[in-house]
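User: I'll paste a sequence; please echo it back and then give the predicted structure.

Assistant: Echoing your sequence first, then the prediction.
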Amino acid sequence: MRKLIATCVLTAAPMMAQAVIVEGSFSGTIRDSYDFSNTFGFGTGHDGGNNQSISGTFRYDTDLAPADGSSRSDAGVYQSTTNSWLSMTFSVNGITFDISNSDIGPDSRDFERVAVEDEYASTRDLFQVRDRQGGIAYETYSGGITRVEQETTGVVTVWDYVLDFIDGDSLEQEFSWDSSSSINGGATFDVGVYDRSTAGLGFVYSEWAWARSNLTEFNMAIVPEDIPDVPEPSSIALLGLGLAGIGFTRRKRNI
């Protein structure tokens, strides 16, 4: 009897699910830049940040990612403006920017995307991560209303026309690359604030900076995490049937 109860319980017990986390890191050298107002620590206009180092990280949860929006069999496009499943940071000239958070207004400009293209046979293999966060805030002053817009964007792309380094169109890709290989890659980072007056006074304040870089290192690893599932209705039903059967058997023996 005890063995039967144990069997029913084990049969109905929930299995452990795998929540797949993908973590990546990258680094490179700035090849093209612009800094309007000392955002990166330069304030020298065009190309003031050239040859400086740039690095960053990204992380996403495949369980929280949206469905593949691509109609192609050799490509996957996972993008969303409504949930937070991807995070990214950039470090430029010793300053770290967390692109996953916006400090101004509602996150009305959020955009998170991972694109995977396994099309080596025809054109190229490509993997791209893009994270954008931004918002708009309004402030009333004596001359009217000021509209403040803020946005930070990070994009990291690796691609190749010769090497077949992408496996399918899944988010669960994993590979490492350094400057000794022939894979191409690049990173782009933008940060800016616009302060506009809706009373016809034009710009009150403007700050914007961007940097484009050549990547020298890119790593992406899959980190599985065990998360217990909620018991499915079928499992609960099996447990109930098992216990009912045990009760019926005992009652029959007692008659």
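Residues 17-254 form one domain. The first helix runs from residue 2 to 12.
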